[in-house]
């Protein structure tokens, strides 16, 4: 394959070893001049800074040495002069050290490049040289007699070729005419000056000729292979009857759910009964129930109050509120630890009977609590919290919604006032 490539292109493929060696040479010599210029420029600038610092040190030390001969009014501070001399000395030492380090680095870089270039040069010398080829011969001038003799020999041997074309079918003739008409159609730009028509060109095609296809000379088959040979009507159009509109579906109303029937809500599926059904099974307490009685105990919510709270909070029939929420509901109903203590103190002061059907004073400690009940140990505390973190968050959200609604109403009123004022003007 390599030999054929050499024959076709006339060039030998590059040697990979030589190519790698040349690439290394270019990589090592491409950035060396710019590196040299950068390093030498940096060393020159550091030398300039060093000379400036030494000149400044000479001036400052001369002034410091002549302080005893200078009057007190014109004498500079000796501490300031010593500070400036120290600063200039440190700067000069740093510049000389930096210049020495840069010169050392530059020497090492040039030494490394020199060694690498010597290695690359020895590799290039060790590579075999490409074979030398013969020089291209000069073209020879041909005489007119030789060229005329070759043409005469070709004519006597081969002679003139005659090509016979038979009659073309009608389809090819029609297709050729259509292609000619397509070539003759040109895009006309409005405002363009058209040249006069060529008298030898065919007449332009009309729209009917352009749109209609030429008739095919071959008969088209009217039946499939293997089909029956009965006559078929050609060009018949099927007319489909319009679709009848579907009558609207009549939704049968769902019968009301009977009390005690399991609902379809997910909470009802968990609890086994809906909150509405559970509330309908309970009887409400009398309106004149006194705090501390059976229908309004001091330290717990009744089953009816629990059912109303579950329905209001949109919970299932087995949900239990937190102790903080129970205290809040009891306080809203005029019960709870605070109201219990105040009512008991009032009865002791006035001598009125104190209602306590649960007998909280004689209840033993550690007794299990019923749903909706708080511990009697809360009676020992003077202050109890009626809101937890979630309640405070809900109240803050409610206040924010009310504030936003109020702002929107104020903005709407202002816009309405502006519209009325503009309409009056």
Main features:
disordered N terminus, 13 helices, 425 residues, single chain, mainly alpha, 0% strand
Q: How would you concisely characterize the structure shown here?
A:
With 425 residues, the chain is mostly helical.
Description:
With 425 residues, the protein is an all-alpha fold. It contains 13 helices and no strands. The longest helix is centred in the first third of the chain and has 49 residues, at 78-126. It is flat, with a radius of gyration of 57 Å. Mean pLDDT is 75; it is low at 1-10, 207-213 and 223-231.
Indicate the low-confidence ranges by residue numbers.
1-10, 207-213, 223-231
Number of helices: 13
Distance between the termini: 97 Å
| Nearest-integer average pLDDT | 75
The coarse silhouette is flat
Number of strands: 0
- Please provide the ordered H/E string of secondary-structure elements: HHHHHHHHHHHHH
Helix content: 40-55%
Q: Estimate what percentage of residues fall within beta strands.
A: under 5%
The radius of gyration is 57 Å
- Structural class, by secondary structure, is mainly alpha
**Sheet of most strands:** none
SSE blueprint and pairings:
Blueprint: H1 2-9, H2 16-30, H3 32-65, H4 78-126, H5 144-158, H6 170-184, H7 207-211, H8 266-271, H9 275-280, H10 303-312, H11 323-332, H12 337-350, H13 389-424
Helix pairs in contact: 2-4, 3-4
């Amino acid at each position: 394959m390599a030999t054929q490539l050499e024959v076709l292109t006339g060039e030998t493929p590059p040697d990979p070893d030589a190519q790698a060696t040349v690439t290394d040479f270019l990589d090592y010599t491409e950035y060396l001049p710019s590196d040299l210029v950068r390093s030498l420029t940096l060393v020159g600038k550091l030398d300039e800074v060093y000379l400036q610092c030494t000149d400044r040190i000479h001036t400052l030390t001369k002034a410091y040495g002549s302080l005893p001969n200078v009057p007190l009014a014109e004498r500079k501070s000796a501490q300031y002069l010593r500070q400036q001399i120290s600063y200039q000395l440190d700067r000069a030492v740093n510049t000389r050290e930096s210049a020495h380090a840069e010169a050392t680095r530059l020497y090492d870089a040039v030494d490394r490049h020199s060694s690498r270039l010597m290695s690359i040069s020895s590799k290039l010398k060790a590579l075999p040289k490409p074979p030398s080829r013969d020089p291209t011969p000069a073209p020879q001038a041909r005489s007119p007699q030789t060229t005329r003799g070759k043409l005469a020999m070709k004519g006597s041997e081969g002679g003139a070729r005659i090509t016979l074309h038979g009659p073309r079918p009608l389809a090819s003739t029609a297709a050729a005419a259509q292609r000619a008409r397509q070539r003759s159609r040109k895009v006309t730009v409005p405002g363009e000056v058209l040249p006069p028509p060529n008298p030898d060109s065919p007449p332009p095609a009309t729209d009917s000729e352009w749109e209609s296809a030429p008739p095919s000379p071959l008969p088209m088959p009217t039946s499939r292979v293997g089909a029956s040979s009965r006559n078929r009507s050609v060009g018949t159009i099927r007319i489909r009857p319009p679709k009848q509109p579907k009558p609207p579906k009549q939704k049968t109303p769902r019968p009301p759910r009977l009390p005690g029937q399991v609902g379809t809500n997910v909470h009802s599926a968990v609890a086994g009964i809906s909150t509405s059904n559970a509330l309908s099974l309970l009887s409400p307490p009398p309106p004149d129930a006194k705090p501390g009685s059976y229908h309004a105990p001091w330290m717990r919510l009744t089953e009816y109050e629990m059912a109303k709270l579950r329905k209001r909070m949109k919970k299932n029939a087995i949900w239990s509120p937190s102790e903080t929420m129970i205290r809040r509901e009891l306080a809203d109903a005029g019960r709870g630890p605070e109201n219990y203590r105040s009512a008991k103190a009032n009865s002791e002061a006035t001598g009125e009977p104190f209602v306590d059907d649960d007998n909280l004073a004689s209840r033993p400690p550690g007794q299990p609590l019923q749903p909706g009940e708080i511990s009697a140990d809360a009676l020992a505390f003077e202050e109890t919290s009626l809101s937890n973190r979630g309640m405070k968050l809900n109240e803050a959200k409610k206040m924010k919604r009310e504030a936003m609604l109020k702002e929107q109403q104020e903005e709407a009123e202002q816009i309405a006032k502006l519209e009325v004022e503009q309409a009056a003007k």
